């Protein structure tokens, strides 16, 4: 999430919303969000509905939910998806920005 925060201004310049979905309860997620003062939206997914909808992997041997980044256009069409194979397998902001610029 820190990577997204570091590039947040580049996303907003492109009229792009950043939404982070997390596995915690609404209470825990809200507390975490407020303590970190993130500038983007957070969505608790305690029942894993979003996780299941988009096929995000859970691997208990690798600390739970694997990272997944998706780019959904304003029409609701999924344009890009990256499923991470480890907690550090996250595309660089520049890669996502480049994709946004092609839409």
Using brief descriptors, characterize the structure shown:
103 residues; Glutaredoxin; two-stranded antiparallel ribbon; 22% strand
Fold and architecture overview:
This protein has 103 residues and is α+β, with helices and mostly antiparallel strands. The protein has a single domain (2-102), classed as Glutaredoxin, CATH 3.40.30.10. 37% of the residues lie in helices and 22% in strands.
Brief write-up:
The protein has five helices and six strands, in the order H-H-E-H-E-H-E-E-E-E-H. With 103 residues, it is of the alpha+beta class.
Task: Report the CATH superfamily.
Answer: Glutaredoxin
User: What would you call the shape?
Assistant: globular
Q: What is the rounded Rg?
A: 14 Å
Main pleated sheet: 2 strands, parallel
Tally of contiguous helical segments: 5
Number of domains: 1
The helix-and-strand class reads: alpha+beta
The end-to-end span amounts to: 23 Å
Low-confidence stretches: none
